[in-house]
Each structure stands twice: as C-alpha cells, then as structure tokens.
Amino acid sequence: IINYTKYATTDLENWIYLAESKMKSRRARILLFIYPVGEMKKPEEPVRSDYADQVFMSHEVLLNQTDIESILDQVEDWFAGDSCLDTRDIKRNLSDYRSWLENGGDASTMHAVCEETRIVAMGVTKNMRFYEPLEEFQTFLIHELYHAFQQDLEMEGKCRDMREQDERNSNSQWLVEGAAHYFATWLVAEINNNPNYESD
C-alpha cells in the first residue's frame, strides 16, 4: 500500500485483509497506490494515458513533485523482478501512472498489468474525502480490490477459453462490475454492522 491520503494505512490494511479473507484464494500480487486530488478542472479535461485513456478527469494536483516521484519509484521497485514485465512494459505503465498523478486524475481502476500482477490506483476526490460518508470510500476501495482478487474472468482459465470458443460466453461488464459492487456492498455492511444491506 502506498498511501498519500489522510485515511489511516492501518484502517486500509484491516479492510483489505478482511476482504482478502473472504476470497477462496488469491494468486495475484497486488499494489495499491492512493492519493488525494482537489477540485475538478473547468472546463473538464480528460487525462491522456495508454491505459484508461481519457477515462479519468483532471483535478487540482495536491501532491508535490517529490511525492509523485516517490510513488513512481515505489511502483517501479515493486515491478522489479517480476518476470512477466520487461523494461518497455514498466516504462509504459509508469508513464500512465505519471500522467494520472501529474494531472490530478481521479483514478478508480484495477490495472491487470500481467496475469498475476495487479495495480489498484485511486485518486480520491475532495467530495469523497470531505462530504461523503466513510462507507462510500470503503465501497470504492473494496470494489477496486475485488477486481484485483477476481481470477478467472478475463486473462486466464475456463472463462477465457469459453470466450475464445464463442463470444456469447464472454463475461460481460455487468458480471465483472456487478460482482465487485455486490462484494463491496456486502463487506462494507459487515464492517459497519449494517444488517439491512440487501436492499443496497
């Protein structure tokens, strides 16, 4: 976890380990980097990157350049030694993350860098930090982590094989996103002792 927000890293760890404990297994290596962003730029400006191009919007950058370089250095160190990545892959991924960080991108993504190497990036908006209940942030966090925990949905295994045989067997967006939403809603209810999560 690389945490540049005011959310306590110990809280993040507790929620993440609880989420992981609910999974039958986890094979992926997962790195989370999380950072705050300020007000959205007006007029709206999408952030350019190779992965998730123009998906995230530019916001006021709250990190200084030293913080940005530190995050990128830690991600690069984490990538080092991963046999699925070559130097070109690492540079391309770091270029994307630099673009998000230097433009205040409101990242909300799980990037399956390789079959078992996953990056979760979260640019936390001012609205979420100051005005929304903590449960909204917890749901955001656990939703993205669930994507990192998901195994046989995109890059490997029976589901991929079935999709290649017949596109009608493809895991559509509703399954991937619906599963993450369901898991996050259910787990956040457990964390906060909310017995009435079913209607959510």
Question: Gist?
Answer:
With 200 residues, this protein is of the alpha/beta class.
Per-chain topology:
Elements: E1 2-3, H1 9-21, E2 29-40, E3 59-61, H2 65-79, H3 87-102, E4 108-114, E5 117-124, H4 126-130, H5 134-149, H6 157-165, H7 173-191
Parallel strand pairs: 1-2, 2-5
Antiparallel strand pairs: 2-3, 4-5
Features:
200 residues; alpha/beta; five-stranded mixed β-sheet; 5 strands; 16% strand; globular
Characterise this structure.
It is a single chain. Strands 1, 2, 3, 4 and 5 form a five-stranded mixed β-sheet that branches. With 200 residues, the chain is of the alpha/beta class. Helix 1 packs across helix 5 (134-149), helix 2 (65-79) packs antiparallel against helix 3 and helix 5 packs across helix 7 (173-191). It is 46% helix and 16% strand. Helix 1 links the parallel strand 1 and strand 2 (29-40). The protein contains seven helices and five strands; from the N terminus they run βαββααββαααα.
Total beta strand runs = 5
Assembly state: single chain
Order of helices and strands: EHEEHHEEHHHH
Quote the distance from N terminus to C terminus. Answer: 29 Å
Mean pLDDT: 90
Biggest β-sheet, characterized? 5 strands, mixed
Sheet-strand content, in percent, reads: 15-25%
User: How large is the radius of gyration?
Assistant: 17 Å
Number of helices: 7
Report the principal-axis shape: globular
Helix content: 40-55%
* Content-based structural category: alpha/beta
Please mark out the parts with pLDDT under 50 across 5 or more consecutive residues, or reply none: none
